[in-house]
Amino acid sequence: MNVLVFGQTGQVATELALFDGVTCLGRADADLTDPGACEAVIAATDADAVINAAAYTAVDKAEENRDTAMIVNAMAPTAMAAAAAARGIPFVHISTDYVFDGSGSAPWQPDAPTGPLGVYGASKLGGEKGVAAAGGTYAILRTAWVFSAHGNNFVRTMRRLGAERDALTIVGDQIGGPTPARDIAAACMKIARALHADPSKSGTYHFSGAPDVSWADFAREIFAQSDLSVDVTDITTDQYPTPAKRPANSRLNCTTTTSAFGIERPDWRAGLAQVLADLTP
Ligand SMILES: NC(=O)C1=CN([C@@H]2O[C@H](COP(=O)(O)OP(=O)(O)OC[C@H]3O[C@@H](n4cnc5c(N)ncnc54)[C@H](OP(=O)(O)O)[C@@H]3O)[C@@H](O)[C@H]2O)C=CC1
Ligand SMILES: Cc1cn([C@H]2C[C@H](O)[C@@H](COP(=O)(O)OP(=O)(O)O[C@H]3O[C@@H](C)C(=O)[C@@H](O)[C@H]3O)O2)c(=O)[nH]c1=O
């Protein structure tokens, strides 16, 4: 199957590029600040499916760059979904746990009420709504806390800070499932194939790594597996002020992803070991 991917340099796009039949589009091929250009690329493609792995992902910066975040994360995916619908090919769109308000402690079901706390989450929710309303075959795959050997992510941040300091304070009251980018790429490919065969599987799905942990415990595991001796102290969200609010409860219930596509939650600790091996020269 030939698959057109928006995104080239990002964590998930880099992993998607490793699959046969995938063509990745960078900014020079399709700039998401120009939704019409994204639409035109799909109108001209002979691909069997489209995956959108590009997004404005700078959570704090989005607070002051609302317009760009909205165009890239809401308007561009909406235009892509319309173009894919017009061509009759499935569209897989990646979204985020940050569409939820983080209340409670139960894992969020895909049809649970949304309530983004910041601009990034609101812009991603706008994209979800546009994709679902476009009338084509689609999957919205919400994931969380993505990490890989390249790009910006918590693992690389912790490795950098851990090399400089012997003690860190990390938020311990935000809980979620760290997710290896490699597993997200594999899930997107499997879902694209399944939708191609059976459009009735269209809908919103969840996919995150297991077990759920706090950022502080995620950091502890990163240091343990890296043989770095760093003392991690839990702090509360209030003690780590940021421009954008983050959800306290980012747990995602992924059962419908397993029942519809046979995709299980990956153990992120194994994914972390792979990523650290890739990072070590
Ligand atoms: N990172 C995370 O922790 C999480 C991510 N997600 C979602 O997963 C998906 C993939 O995220 P991830 O791989 O981490 O993303 P990255 O932040 O690693 O990469 C973002 C990608 O989007 C591209 N991009 C940004 N703006 C534009 C633009 N205007 N035109 C063209 N390309 C653009 C970037 O290209 P360039 O290098 O040119 O800027 C880059 O390739 C996104 O939908 C994200 O919202 C969901 C949950 C968690
Ligand atoms: C660096 C650092 C961060 N933190 C906290 C801040 C925050 O609550 C948490 C994670 O910080 P980050 O800024 O790396 O994570 P953040 O950019 O918020 O990550 C999010 O990115 C977007 C794209 C998503 O879609 C989400 O799923 C999620 O992965 O760790 C500390 O407590 N101490 C520290 O020293």
Automatic annotation (TrEMBL):
GO terms for molecular function: dTDP-4-dehydrorhamnose reductase activity. Its cofactor is Mg(2+). Pathway: Carbohydrate biosynthesis; dTDP-L-rhamnose biosynthesis. Residues 1-279 form the RmlD-like substrate binding domain. It catalyses: dTDP-beta-L-rhamnose + NADP(+) = dTDP-4-dehydro-beta-L-rhamnose + NADPH + H(+). Binds 1 Mg(2+) ion per monomer. Its EC number is 1.1.1.133. InterPro entries: dTDP_dehydrorham_reduct, NAD(P)-bd_dom_sf, RmlD-like-bd. Keywords: NADP, Oxidoreductase, Plasmid. CDD domains: dTDP_HR_like_SDR_e. It is an enzyme of class 1 (oxidoreductase). NCBIfam families: rmlD. Belongs to the dTDP-4-dehydrorhamnose reductase family. Catalyzes the reduction of dTDP-6-deoxy-L-lyxo-4-hexulose to yield dTDP-L-rhamnose. PANTHER family: DTDP-4-DEHYDRORHAMNOSE REDUCTASE, METHIONINE ADENOSYLTRANSFERASE 2 SUBUNIT BETA. This is dTDP-4-dehydrorhamnose reductase. The lineage of its organism: Bacteria, Pseudomonadati, Pseudomonadota, Alphaproteobacteria, Rhodobacterales.
